[in-house]
Design a protein that fits this description.
Layout lengths: L4 H4 L8 H5 L1 H14 L11 E7 L6 E7 L7 E11 L4 H4 L16 E8 L11 E4 L2 E3 L5 H4 L10 E2 L11 E5 L3 E3 L6 H19 L8 E5 L5 H10 L3 E6 L5 H7 L3 E4 L5 H7 L3 E6 L4 H5 L5 E9 L11 H4 L4 E4 L5 H14 L5 E4 L4 H10 L5 E5 L3
Parallel strand pairs: 10-11, 10-13, 11-12, 13-14, 14-15, 16-17
Antiparallel strand pairs: 1-2, 3-4, 3-8, 3-17, 4-5, 5-9, 6-7
The structure holds zinc ion (2 copies).
One zinc ion binds next to loops.
Length: 383
Amino acid sequence: MSPNLWTSGSSNGDGDANLDQDYNAALLYRRRCQLTSEPYTDRRGGVVMKAMVVREAGGPFELEEREVPEPGPGEIRIKVEACGICHSDAFVKFGQFPGLELPRVPGHEVAGAVDALGDGVDLFSVGDRVGVGWHGGHCFKCDPCRRGDFLNCKSPKVCGISYDGGYQEYLVCPWEAVARIPDALSAVDAAPLLCAGITTYNALRNSGARPGDVVAVQGVGGLGHLALQYANRMGFHTVALSRGKDKEALARKLGAHQYIDATAQDEVKELQKLGGADVILATAPSGKAIEGVVNGLSGRGKLMLVAAAPDPFSVNAFGMLSGKMIHGWPSGSAIDSEDTMRFSALTDVRPQVERFPLEGADEAFAKVMENTIRFRAVLDIAS
Ligand SMILES: [Zn+2]
Ligand SMILES: [Zn+2]
């Protein structure tokens, strides 16, 4: 069994030793606290919570009971209600992110409510519904921050990598990482919007495309199924690029005006029949797939990259000379997350999710990596 405060507390000799040693009593007590929302405390008065922790690179997510963290100056404690699972959580699971220290609780699609405020935080109040995405804080002092470019901060923080993230019942984060969630969105729906949502919404709204322009979304998956909805709601001529017939009906239902099946049609020719795509949003993490569609751009079209393809791709420089652009897009800051969620509430954009309990993180993560989730996995922590 993993170390927890009930068993580790039993050796120090003070308090009610019988209760300490009776794990069943502890479980019953915990259940009562869950049912009544009474704070769950060990006999020494510290409040404890459940967390799913990666202890070593490649190891499983392990359930730990930990003391609920206290927010320091400038920090906010969030009672987590839901946390989405993202491919990028693999950076933690396999210990691959520069500067990452294990053990770590992953999770950067966090939705919940403000539970406590550290000194100096006056923008939020206890009870506010809030979330945190990938951008988990910045320094305000480096040159990019002084220019307002917080995403390129020289000392950035990433939620669930720089500090413990949302695979737990409470997290503490810097106030500048926190975004408000509109009432119309449930925590489970809001969570994926804080990564997959903001990434696609923010890329599209900054792509330069205007209403009526041809915007092709490559890939109908976790990112693509949201991108199709956003592109449609933003007034673009929305084209879905995918492989096979099986996704066509869904892509059209999500908002695609046209569906191009790469297994049966020539994507480039089909896009050029429309005059070329003004924007191609590449959501599929495949350099090879991206390479195949670049020539589907219009003369001054723009390829927007929002997913990290592991394999490189090449382009023909001659074909780019007409004025084509290749543009990478990061997710966004907290206010971009708020914009994403407000727009989603206003225009009825929702993620399609599969729910898992917090303890089901291993199973959910495995399904995400196998690509068998339709379309985002969410840890439903509140229930
Ligand atoms: Zn993510
Ligand atoms: Zn900075």
